[in-house]
Amino acid sequence: MREIIRAWGLTALLAGLLLAPAGVMAGVEKPVLERGKGERCVEDTEYMRRYHMQLLKHHRDDTMRRGIRTTKHSLKGCVECHASSKTGSVASSKEDFCMACHVYASVKLDCWDCHATKPMKKTTPAAMPRLSPLTVGLPGGQQP
Amino acid sequence: MLSQQYCLEARECKPALFWTLMGAGGLVLLGTLYAFFTLEHHGHVLTGMDNQIVWGLPHVFAVFLIVAASGVLNVASIGSVFGKRLYKARAPLSGLLAIAMLAGGLAVLVLDLGRPERLIVAMTHYNFKSIFALNMIFYTGFFAIVGLYLITLMDRSLNPWSKPMGMLAFLWRIALTTATGSIFGFIVARAGFNSALYAPLFVIYSFAYGLAVFIVVQSVMYKWNEIQVDPRILARLKNLLAIFVAASLYFTAVLHLTNLYYAKQWEFERFILLEGGIYPLLFWGGQVFLGGILPLILIFSPISRHPATVFLAALLVVLGGHFQMYVTIIGGQAFPLDLFPGYAESSTFYDGVVHPYTPTIWELLLGLGGIAIAFLITTAAVRVLRFMPQDDLKELELELKPH
Amino acid sequence: MSDLQQKPVNEERRTLLKAGAVATGTALAPGVLLFGAAQARAPEEPASDKVRWGMIIDVNKCADGCNDCVTACNEENGLSGATGPQDSQWIRKLNIRHLKTGVETSLPMLCVHCEHPPCVDVCPTGASMKRADGIVLVDRHICIGCRYCMMACPYKARSFVHEPLTDQNPEVPRGKGCVESCTFCVQKVDRGENTTACVEACNAAGHKAMIFGDMNDPTSEIAQILKTQKTTEIRADLGLNTGVRYQGI
Predict the structure, then answer these.
(1) pLDDT, tens digit, 9 for 90 and up, residues A103-132
(2) Does residue A108 sit within a domain?
(3) Which among A62, B55, B273, C229 has the fewest CB atoms less than 10 Å away?
(4) Residue C81 lies in a domain
């Protein structure tokens, strides 16, 4: 009797292990990303999907350790374009640009422990002409 | 399965006791993990550590374990390198304790990091000018060398290798403790550290703490297995402990006497030896009296033939070691930096004032985790392999005869 | 001071400069911008070891009770300004009183950006680093939060971030579990402004006690002072060759 129970148990376990990923795949929808501002990304979408981490890491070391401040592959640039129109951030909700994929792929991000998830300005870009220096506010928005 | 266990008789295996011990150790470790995840989530804001006292109670436990880990290996070294049978019989337990305690100590250090998930970074990015980075190499190497050494000790066919391996392990552990002491010795900024003496000081401390831990563990193992230890063996061990404890006191005295000769160090010495509140109390009462003088009195008293007395003396040395680490690590930070000699300083950043430190339960839990890890590794290993020191009394007879 | 607070931000300023809209910029922050424009390096150009950024603080000009440099630093770098034992302080006002004469002096204390920084020596991973132009920084990407640099710093210049942070200044990333300290406002320096928030605030308050510049550039004000006047390094006995020097102590 015991043997039979064991055999069934084992079969059920194996079946569960086999079916689990299928269930996950079936149950979760692929992330839908909001289109970034501007005409196109700094690199092709396919390229960015695969290599954004390498680009960011390379740029991070260049900027941090050598003081190279080009904007093409800077994280700040990503945030400028990809901040959500709803939350104004790239990572404050699960639908925001970074989180949408990273939650789907279960890859933890620690960029946002230190980096700001929102662009420089507090007000919406539409309300603020980008080139007028008179309207540029202080990041904290506070005056002492 | 039961027959595989290395107790002398099956009824002495005491499985209930074994699982109780493992359970108790596991519970402490569970508490440690809870503290770790809590701190990981909320940050170090929950601890008593701050921008003034940057290393706290966890480091007291961790550094003690690391220093004692290298010291406990001495027992094996005396056996292998100097060929003493009494110590050879104890070499496997000594090696095991060394690995277990180092693992415990390092675990605490890692759990206390601000970014513990970046341990891999610490293993892939090295700044070789940092004594900390060198220590990581010494620690990793220590595991490997002592592990191999243990194999040569326990596998009869590899026994001939135990002498060179023992030699290597001995040299490695001296280098390791030198580097551990240098963590403090190389801090040029602070009055309490910044002394080359820290390297030999920590080496001699490690001799005392390591042997003391060994005696404590051996006593407990013998007690549980109802083995009577030969009084002559006990006498050897306790005399050696006395030499190490006395040497520790001597080096401590030299450190402070040197400082007392330098005018710029007077303020610090006044703080740590006389006026610093808890620190002089822990120094004189804890480190010097409980951890030094009292054990010496016990060891040389008429009642020292009794195993319980030696056990107590060794336990006091272990306790004193924790006091010493507290005084060294936290006392060294509590004394403020003197940026402008000859001036009184004050600021919003606590310049010029003695820095208070009150550890919280989280720090205690982290620290105890190191002991729990060392305890669990030892208890489990002793259960499955032959680590119990067993003396061949006939051979000992020859060695212990007065020459 | 509030005039000066109207700092344009990175992208905007750069675009402005490129477009040649100097007039607008001049109206905003006159001397600074013109001076900066003369020395700015291109964004793709790494920091050069021909430059060594430094600061001279004249404590006789530093006003007792004035805290403007501290406030400006907090503002620029997104620090809360709280002064509990676990809060970050990148710059602080230090009051010192001579034990014999009783003479009191007030001065700002910050990371002195040593030529031979002990924090860089002791850092196990190389997170604590000195940039080619002499600015000492923490690379938070590889900082493991061991805090050995805080033990090693003779100036108590470093802080550990004890709590999770949000809403950081995009130009000054900082977060829980890493050590941090004054960066000489590296974001401003790299923009070519060649000044720091504390110096700007001190000038705006009219004290002009702090001077920032390239110690290696013989034409710079700081190099001139170093050449002709006596300056003091704090804890000169350690031989660290600090980038921040004092006058009047």
Answers:
(1) 999 999 989 999 999 998 644 333 333 333
(2) yes
(3) C229
(4) yes
Whether the per-residue pLDDT at A2 is higher than 70: the answer is no
Task: Evaluate if residue B346 carries a pLDDT over 90.
Answer: yes
Neighbours of C34 (CB within 10 A): 12
Is it the case that residue A66 has pLDDT exceeding 80? Answer: yes
Query: What is the band of C129 on the pLDDT scale with cuts at 50, 70, 90?
Result: very high
Question: Is C165 among the domain residues?
Answer: yes
For residue A121, the chain C residues in CB contact (below 8 A) are: 9
Domain ranges across chain B: 19-337+347-382
**Cβ partners under 8 Å of residue B244, min gap 6:** B204, B207, B208, B211
Contact C86, B324 (CB under 8 A): no
Domain that holds residue C29: 10-247
* Average model confidence (pLDDT) across chain B: 92
| Shortest Cα distance, chain B CAs vs residue C2, angstroms | 24
Domains in chain C, number: 1
Nearest by CB to residue C43, choosing from A60, A70, A142, is: A70
What is the residue range of A94's domain?
A: 35-121
Instruction: Report yes or no: C145 and C161 within 8 Å, Cβ to Cβ.
Output: no
Return the CATH class of domain B19-337+347-382: mainly alpha
Q: Using CA atoms, how far apart are residues B299 and B317, in angstroms rounded to an integer?
A: 11
Beta strands in B32-123 (DSSP E): none
Give the per-residue pLDDT at A54.
Answer: 94
Nearest CA in chain A to C9: A136
Q: Which helix (H) or strand (E) holds B163?
A: helix B162-185
Residue with tokens 């300056």: C231
Complex prediction ipTM: 0.91
Give the list of residues 6+ apart from residue B154 with CB closer than 8 angstroms, or none: B92, B385, B386
Q: Is B42 touching C (CB cutoff 8 A)?
A: yes
Q: Does residue C3 fall inside a structural domain? A: no
Report how far residue B121's alpha carbon sits from residue C127's, in angstroms, rounded to the nearest whole number: 10
Say which amino acid occupies B305.
R
CATH code of the domain covering residue C185: 3.30.70.20
| Pairwise CB contact (< 8 Å): C141 & A67 | no
The answer as to whether A1 is a domain residue is no
